[in-house]
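Allow me, if you will, to draw on your knowledge of protein folds for a short while. I have a record of one protein: its chain in single-letter code and its fold written as discrete structure tokens. I should value your view on which stretches of the chain appear to form regular backbone elements. Thank you for your consideration; the sequence and its tokens are set out here:
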Amino acid sequence: MGVDFGLKRVGLAVCDSLHILATPLPVYHTKSMRNSIDHVARMAQEHGVGCIVVGLPLNLDGSESVQSGRVRAFARNLGKVTGLPVELFDERLTTVEADELLIDAGVTKAKDRANLVDSMAAKVILQGYIDNNKN
């Protein structure tokens, strides 16, 4: 399962059983980190997930930001709650790529893209992880 964690929205994606293709799930609107952890844990159980990949937001130069610390805490707590392995994956520019994918798919209104971009970013994160770990 791929996760694009945010303070207001959490994007989620899952992949097929052969670990070839990531597919976005609906965006989750959250009020707290604990609320997000509980939701992601439920979705992981519902989808029979064996590993969770959380996008780690880094600055363009590779350094960590304030949000990086929040994501690390989220990932650590998510692993404790689910008992699943949780991997961090560099998410630099995934939101830009997700927005471009939505435009290419014909989602032209910025407001419509805003409602979908987090889950599409989770898809990009998970697909990147899958593609990097094919060996």
